[in-house]
């Protein structure tokens, strides 16, 4: 899914109507929209309630491919469990990781083993577990299951933990425009699925909202069904390097552990990169590339997992939000490293437009 998306206003003069820049992050060569004001607005806490004693819970954690240490999605889930250990007294956690080429039977076996061994609740990290959770959960009606990134499993003992990835991606798309010197940015997705298309859709929409002339490269590492795209840094490097060679000087990845390759390409190509899920500027496994990580789109899987464990411990699952979005701090953007400090008022202005409902971010890419 390679190509260059040249927006309709590309041929317009950069000094056209509405060409205003309210931050110092960009000289105005790319930004063509007036930034909204960052009016103060209260956000709802995503906390499931007061701290409780969760020491009696035995947590089963079934990771997607990459597992703990992927510096992204799985590590965010791990951080939520680690926080539950320190704050809620959780002592017993069993972790297991999917392999890139395993079949549904292997996923079902993993969940079944956790349930048979008495782990409760069990958190399935990723939409790839949907079929397995749907098959296993009915066999263990007294065990609670949660699945991240999927709401298709309708069972009384299954809780979906889903996010507004498109909203956070919209904000980093705006940041990319403000920081691009070439008015040319890129996106690298891991696997071409509806979920990852939400990241792409928000990123493109945010970039378009800030500029009528930005050029956007967008590529995926693997097609739907081939989940190796989330664990192939070499391929991530090659795709990002191609986008940078085409002129992109800011590249956003939603590619799991493959994102390390995107960071490598950004550093080699004198470009900037945008991380995903976790605050990747602070991830030790990609620390050598932190100087090119300008921000990360935060998908607060850690918050969702922690809140879920807390809700189970307090027997109050109804306290969880239906969707972890900007209103509940379920998604957002990182400021570590200070590279976007100067445009934070701009980003907050756009954020409030989304929270207020003035802007609805698309979930499918508009080419």
TrEMBL record:
Cell location: Cell membrane
GO cellular component: plasma membrane
Keywords: Cell membrane, Lipoprotein, Membrane, Signal
Record-linked InterPro entries: BMP_lipoprotein, PnrA-like
Keyword Lipoprotein: yes
Residue ranges, annotated region (Disordered): 11-31
Pfam families for the chain: Bmp
ABC transporter substrate-binding protein PnrA-like domain location: 65-362
Comp. bias regions, Low complexity: 19-31
Record carries keyword Oxidoreductase: no
Name this protein carries in UniProt: BMP family ABC transporter substrate-binding protein
Species: Amycolatopsis acidicola
């Amino acid at each position: 899914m390679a190509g260059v998306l040249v927006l309709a206003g590309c041929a317009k003069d950069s000094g056209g109507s509405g060409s205003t820049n309210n931050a110092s992050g960009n000289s105005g060569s790319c930004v063509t929209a007036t930034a909204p004001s960052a009016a103060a607005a209260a956000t709802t806490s995503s906390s499931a309630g007061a701290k409780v004693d969760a020491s009696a819970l035995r947590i089963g954690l079934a990771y997607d491919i990459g597992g703990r240490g992927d510096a992204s999605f799985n590590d965010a889930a791990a951080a939520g469990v680690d926080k539950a250990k320190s704050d809620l007294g959780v002592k017993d956690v069993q972790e297991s990781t999917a392999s890139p080429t395993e079949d549904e039977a292997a996923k079902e076996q993993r969940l079944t083993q956790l349930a048979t061994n008495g782990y409760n609740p069990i958190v399935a990290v990723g939409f790839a577990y949907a079929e397995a959770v749907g098959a296993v959960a009915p066999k263990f009606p007294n065990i609670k299951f949660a699945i991240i990134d999927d709401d298709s499993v309708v069972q009384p003992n299954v809780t979906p933990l889903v996010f507004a990835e498109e909203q956070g991606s919209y904000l980093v798309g705006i940041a990319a425009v403000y920081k691009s010197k070439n008015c040319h940015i890129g996106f690298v997705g891991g696997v071409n699925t509806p979920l990852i298309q939400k990241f792409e859709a928000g990123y493109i929409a945010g970039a378009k909202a800030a500029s009528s002339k930005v050029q956007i490269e967008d590529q995926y590492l693997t097609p739907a069904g081939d989940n190796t795209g989330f664990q192939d840094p070499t391929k991530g490097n090659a795709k990002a390097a191609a986008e940078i060679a085409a002129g992109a000087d800011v590249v956003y990845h939603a590619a799991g552990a493959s994102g390390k390759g995107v960071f490598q390409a950004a550093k080699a190509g004198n470009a900037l990169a945008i991380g995903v899920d976790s605050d990747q500027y602070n991830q030790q496994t990609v620390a050598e590339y932190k100087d090119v990580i300008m921000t990360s789109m935060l998908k607060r899987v850690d918050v969702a997992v922690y809140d879920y464990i807390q809700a189970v411990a307090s027997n109050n699952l109804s306290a969880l939000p239906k969707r972890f979005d900007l209103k509940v701090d379920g998604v957002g953007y990182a400021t570590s490293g200070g590279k976007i400090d100067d445009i934070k008022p701009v980003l907050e202005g756009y954020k409030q437009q989304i929270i207020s409902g003035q802007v609805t971010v698309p979930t499918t890419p508009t080419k």
